[in-house]
Amino acid sequence: MTNCPDEERCLHLLEVILDDESTPEAEQEYFEHIDQCWPCYQNYNLEKAIRKLIKSKIENKPVPDGLIKSIKREIEKITIE
Amino acid sequence: MNQMSETKRKRYSEAEKTKVFDIEFYPHIDSMYNFAYRLTFDEDDAKDLVQDTYLKAFRFIESFQKGTNAKAWLFRILKNSFINDFRKKSKEPSKVDYQEVESYYNSGDVDKTITTDLRVDSLKDMMGDEVTNALNTLDVDFRTVIILCDLEGFKYDEMARILDIPIGTVRSRLHRARNLLRENLRVYAKTMGYVKKS
After folding, report:
1. In this structure, what are the phi and psi dihedrals at residue B42, rounded to the nearest 5 degrees?
2. Residues B83 and B135 both lie in one domain
3. Whether residue B140 sits in one domain with residue B176
């Protein structure tokens, strides 16, 4: 399969678009491009899927019990001082 | 006290302070604790860092404008506390200079996007802690931008303010961080046999 002749630029655009930091014009240009460019279309789907997976796989730790309570206690101490 | 800042800054009554904390600050405790944990890798240290951040937020509440981005404001305090107070005390090796790290990574292939080398299938098979480890082994500065952008959803300009760096640096650091993370994941996937060795 031939690569997109403008691959680096497209990958850069893709990153900015997925970060929701692009302009509507750039977005339109990009989506019109991927309609006709199979490698870029694949990159788009892959990158989107990878981001989604990374986000879902990284586990959150539960906040320890009583943390807010202990912060409130410390704040009370400052207020009394 | 400085008269100019007096006019600009909001004075909060005790009741208002409590309200700001309850409505705007405490709802972010989950994100704050996880950010702190991903910086320190220690539950007690993360707890201390979060508590310290909230106490500072209380002391400096006059410089917080109600209705503005409380989460970004709190994250900025936490990041500064980590660098100024915490990192000095911790046993972690001393901070590596940003510029040094960036010029080092800048020199290699790391700027080239490597998404095509990583397959979604291999990621799907990975356990959560393997992906977490791949993130945790990144240098703290690269780890931080991934956390802020990809996990917490901050915008580039918010990250620039949280980290005190120009937006251009946010973008390039984020790009490198993502490439490094994908490289870590690719190596993991290979060692764990999730992908066929080529």
Report:
1. -145, 130
2. no
3. yes
Determine the length of chain B: 198
Length of chain A: 81
Judge whether B126 and B194 are in contact, CB under 8 Å: yes
- Specify if B4 maps to a domain: no
CA–CA separation, B63 and B11 (whole Å): 9
Contact flag A67-B33 (C-beta cutoff 8 Å): yes
Domain residue limits at B167: 98-191
- Domain borders along chain A are 7-80
Residues of B with CB under 8 A from a CB of A: 14, 21, 26, 29-30, 33-34, 37, 43, 46-47, 50-51, 54-55, 58-59, 112-113, 115-116, 118, 120, 123-124, 126-132, 135, 149-151, 155-156, 171, 174-175, 178, 181-182, 185
Q: How many domains does chain B have?
A: 2
What's the confidence (pLDDT) of residue B7? Answer: 45
Q: If chain B, 198 residues long, is cut into consecutive pieces of 10 residues, what is the mean pLDDT of each piece?
A: 49 88 95 96 95 96 88 97 78 50 50 58 77 92 96 96 96 93 85 60
